[in-house]
Design a protein that fits this description.
DNA binding, alpha+beta, 10 strands, Jelly Rolls, Helix-turn-helix, DNA-binding transcription factor activity, RmlC-like_jellyroll
């Protein structure tokens, strides 16, 4: 199943589960109804910002918009997977593994080209992110507790407040685990 088809199916499922009309969800997420309609039809190329806005409006983890039956084993080689790009910066997040039903732990690879900078809105209350720098140097964390990290450094921080991901070198890569309360 293509990423757009997964997103379309998940959006319809979560919107219906929340008892929201297309118009109501679009308003909550700050999107045009036509944009949401296209996404539910499996059309368009949604940005990270659009999908975060929808997940927040639905009150679900970001990864819930990509859930499919999890196989026993999965292999995603470097450069594979479907990166979701930000609108105005060379930032891409690739979901590597979702926690699955009853689990709220998702694994992402963040690619921060050049001086990519992405300011993220707060995730649901109690969300914590674990970041390990695999390549390059980055600045990340809550705005009031930003840290500079180099290859091999680990940082755990509260992500239920505005936080930042910023590349400080060419082609920085971060392995990010996001934990949300169940």
């Amino acid at each position: 199943m293509t990423p757009n088809a997964l997103i379309a199916r998940a959006l319809r499922r979560e919107r219906q589960h929340a008892g929201l009309s297309l118009s109501a969800l679009a308003a909550r997420a700050g999107l045009a109804k036509s944009t949401l309609s296209q996404l539910e039809a499996g059309q368009g190329n949604p940005s990270v910002e659009t999908l975060w806005a929808l997940a927040t409006a639905l009150g679900v983890p970001f990864s819930q918009l990509f859930q499919s039956p999890n196989p026993e084993a999965a292999l995603i080689r470097a450069g594979e997977g479907t990166p979701l790009s930000a609108q105005a910066t060379p930032f891409a997040a690739t979901l590597l593994a979702a926690g699955g039903p009853g689990r709220r732990r998702d694994l992402y690879r963040l690619d921060l080209a050049g001086a990519a900078r992405r300011q993220a809105e707060p995730h649901p209350a109690g969300t914590v992110e674990h970041a390990v720098v695999c390549q390059g140097r980055v600045r990340l964390g809550p705005l009031e507790a930003l840290e500079e990290l180099a290859r091999g450094d680990y940082y755990r921080y509260a992500a239920d407040r505005v936080h930042l991901y910023q590349g400080l070198s060419d082609d920085s890569v971060v392995l990010l685990v996001m934990e949300s309360p169940a």
